[in-house]
Amino acid sequence: MTRKIMVIRHAEKPDPAHGVLGVDETGREDAEDLSVAGWQRAGALARFFVPIDQRPADAVIETPASIFASKAIDASKSLRPQHTVAPTAALLNGTDTRFSEGHEDELVKAVLDGAGAVLISWHHEAIPKIVTLLGYATAPQKWDKTRFDVV
Fold first, then answer.
1. What is the widest separation between alpha-carbon atoms in the chain?
2. Per-residue pLDDT tens digits for 101-114
3. DSSP designation for 17
4. Which listed residue, of 40, 74, 78, 121, carries a Cα 20 to 30 Å from 97's Cα?
5. Which InterPro entries match (predicted)?
6. How many CA atoms lie within 13 A of 64 on its CB side?
7. What is the DSSP letter of 68?
8. What is the pLDDT of residues 130-142, one digit of tens each?
9. Exposed, middle or buried: residue 24 (CB in 10 Å: 0-12, 13-18, 19+)?
10. Cα 42 from Cα 39, distance rounded (Å)
11. Rounded CA gap, 30 and 27, in Å?
12. Which SS3 state, helix, strand or coil, does residue 110 take?
């Protein structure tokens, strides 16, 4: 049984208007990927969720038993949700990318059918829907697009 669900927005994205480019894991320019700051956050999240001493710094955080990230599709080619959790997934059992943006109902069913703690990495526009589908009536209905540091 799923006992804890943690939801994060993907890490920092490109902002061409301010000269911030997206890059893939090899450093090649990719508008659908994370910015350099996003890759740094992704690396930091790995030890936030999977600390070396096995005890997260905050008692409400748990090392996830499973990780879900939205799948890139034609309508949303972004690799940011997957790459945000890639370093964490590399320390654990990988990432479930069966579900894409627009299929949050199927995602939530799979999450609730899981076991242990779950981490979801998604696009900020759909996070309120996910939280509502999880049964939280008081969920914020808008995720601040400038925030990348909230679990």
1. 45
2. 999 999 999 999 99
3. G
4. 40
5. His_PPase_superfam (IPR029033)
6. 32
7. E
8. 999 999 877 777 7
9. middle
10. 5
11. 9
12. helix
Locate tokens 């710094």: which residue?
57
pLDDT digits (tens), the chain, 151 positions:
888 999 999 999 999 999 999 999 999 999 999 999 999 999 999 999 999 988 888 889 999 999 999 999 888 899 999 999 999 999 998 999 999 999 999 999 999 999 999 999 999 999 999 999 999 877 777 778 888 998 9
Amino acid at position 72, single letter: A
Query: What is the number of residues in the chain?
Result: 151
What would the two tokens of residue 103 be?
């299929």
Work out the burial of residue 16: count CB atoms within 10 Å of its CB; fewer than 13 is exposed, 13-18 middle, 19 or more buried: exposed
